[in-house]
Amino acid sequence: MSAGDVTVDVNTSRPLLAFRLAQWATLAAVVWKIGPFNQMFLCYVSTPLRQEFFPAVLESAYGLSAIYICAVASLGIAAMTARLNQQFVASSIALVSISLLCVHQGSYNDMTFATAWWTSLWAVWLSTRLHRDEPEMLIRRAAFLSRCIVSMILLGGAAGKWTDEYWSGQALYEIYFVDRDFWLFNWLRDNLSPDSLRVSATWYSRTVILMETLCGFGLWLLPARWAAGIAILVLTSIALFSNYYLFSVLLSLIGLAAAGLYVKKIDRADEPSVDLALP
Amino acid sequence: MKTRSVDGFFFVILSLVAAIALWIVSMPFCKFVQRTTINRFHLQTRSFATWAIQQPIPSMYNLYNRFEIRPSPWKPEPNAIWASGTVNHFPLRMFTFGDNRKVYLRPDEAREIDIWSSYRGERLHTHWVATPAEEGGFDLTVKVIE
């Protein structure tokens, strides 16, 4: 039997459980906005835009649709199949599809695909190790890599906000507080004076900056289960308190962060460090 | 029994994460990183390939990005600005993404959009014109203002 035909017992393999959860979460992220994406596709068909910057194939609405369907199908197969070779091939196709979505004229700005790209890259790596590595060592490594990626992504969000416009709250005030139809901002507008609303935008913005900065610098240093729990809490809170559509950006990261929950609880005295050494 | 084997892929990804983290952390101090990021947001990177390889760099809600949309050619009259505001990232999305084309573009009518991005003193202003094309849709052209 070749390595590609090998299956791993899903009941005992923590790395495989983590792999599947990340793939399901990425699939959920990519289809979270399927309604708006459908409207978007119809709009792109009726009103094409031509720019010198993009290759023609990356301006095509039908091309975008085909790539999107390919991403969804391959993520679904990767999440469901028990065969290791199929997990690798499907994960790789998903990664290529999501790479194209990151650079297509009609989807490049949507961070859904940037975060899904990192989760997919991690999944491709993990799929190459499932039949090779001892599960306990592999899940610790997978969890370490997952929290490094989540830290780096939150750091990216933070660094772009280390400016006067975000620290003063002006940028998020204009984006969210002025007229965004969302439960928190509607409630604040209904209950605060204009001056107090502006002050609340400042503290909201500073909280976001501090939270992203702290997690960006610190998350990867924490023990696996603590890092996973905090990351899931922070990522979920970002969407719950700003925009439910952001779950399309965050679900894949939540699935990625959850890898840390599969690391076994052990006594601190016996806790091994992450094994980065080459054999 | 499973054994350990060389896991080069793991170290490649870890190195990539570390390199991008360094890039991100240097952003407040390094003009090159600031200019590269602003150019990326305005699709002003020298080549598509150079722009494309930057796309995995996380940049959600980065920079202060504003836009104004007007009819074209623009006449400086009262109420001539049709839409304006602040966006989270990649401000040209007001023409390119989602159903914004349906909202802001009308068949046979040209439109202009000005977009501004800034980060700790580094700025870019680009002016885009969407001109109706004979084969349908629009041609989108750009002029860099500053």
The helix/strand series of chain A, from N terminus to C terminus, equals: HHEHHHHHHHHHH
The Cα radius of gyration of chain B reads 20 Å
Number of helices of chain B: 5
State the helix count of chain A. 12
The beta-strand count of chain B equals 5
The helix/strand series of chain B, from N terminus to C terminus, equals: HHHEEHHEEE
Domain module tally of chain A:
2
What structural class do the secondary elements of chain A suggest? mainly alpha
Structural class of chain B: alpha+beta
- Please state the average pLDDT score of chain A: 93
Biggest interface reads:
A-B, 66 and 60 residues
Helix content of chain B: 25-40%
Low-confidence sequence ranges of chain A: none
**Strand percentage of chain A, roughly?**
under 5%
In which range does the helix fraction of chain A lie? 55-70%
In the predicted model, the low-confidence regions of chain B spanning at least 5 consecutive residues are none
How would you explain this protein's 3D organization?
- The complex is a heterodimer of chains A (279) and B (146).
- Chain A is mostly helical.
- Helix content of chain A is 68%, strand content 1%.
- Chain A has 2 domains: 7-132, no CATH class; 133-263, no CATH class.
- Chain A has helices spanning 14-31, 34-46, 61-80, 84-103, 111-129, 135-159, 164-167, 170-177, 183-191, 194-218, 224-240, 247-257; one strand at residues 49-50.
- The two termini of chain A are 26 Å apart.
- Chain B has 146 residues and is an alpha+beta fold.
- Chain B has one domain (9-144).
- Chain B has 5 helices and 5 strands, in the order αααββααβββ.
- Chain B has a 5-stranded antiparallel β-sheet, covered by helices on one side.
- The interface between A and B is large, with 66 and 60 residues.
